[in-house]
Design brief:
Layout lengths: L25 H4 L18 H37 L4 H45 L2 H20 L1
Helix pairs in contact: 2-3
């Protein structure tokens, strides 16, 4: 290795014979390489021409899928235009969106009503459990209280 300073002769450090290491045999120079797993996609990793072919094939598949999805989207737009009777695709999609949103909100209301019914049913079940745990005197007292409450409301 030469170490140089501009304008001066290059400095060559002296080599000590003890520092010189013997060269390894050609077999020893090679470091063992880990085994390479086969690529998951065929063609990838087998050389530039096969890689290019694999990439081109994959791009062709993706383009075909995109074209199919585009056709499906056009079918959706045609269907929405037919259902709404509108000719503007943007307006037809917005109207269809509003319609679906209303349907979703109606279903949410039904679910909430069912939940209220379920809560009420659970309350009645709890009430039946409490009544079943009462003895005869407690039941008679409760029925008397109900009769008094009903009579008080009917005269009000």
């Amino acid at each position: 290795m030469n170490i140089g300073v501009p304008g001066q002769k290059p400095f060559v450090p002296p080599i000590n014979p003890k520092e010189v290491k013997p060269e390894k045999a050609p077999e020893e120079k090679l470091t063992p390489q880990p085994t390479v797993k086969a690529p998951t996609q065929p063609g990838i990793g087998r050389g530039p021409e096969l890689d290019a072919h694999a990439i081109a094939t994959r791009l062709a598949i993706l383009a075909t899928e995109a074209k199919e999805k585009e056709l499906k989207f056009e079918d959706i737009i045609d269907r929405v235009i037919e259902e709404t009777g509108m000719t503007n695709p943007q307006s037809a999609m917005e109207e269809a969106n509003r319609k679906v949103q209303r349907e979703i909100e109606d279903e949410i209301v039904k679910i909430k009503e069912n939940k209220e019914l379920m809560d009420e049913a659970e309350s009645w079940q709890e009430f039946a459990r409490v009544l079943s745990q009462m003895n005869e005197e407690q039941v008679e007292g409760f029925l008397g209280l109900l009769k008094d409450t009903i009579n008080a409301r009917s005269f009000s």
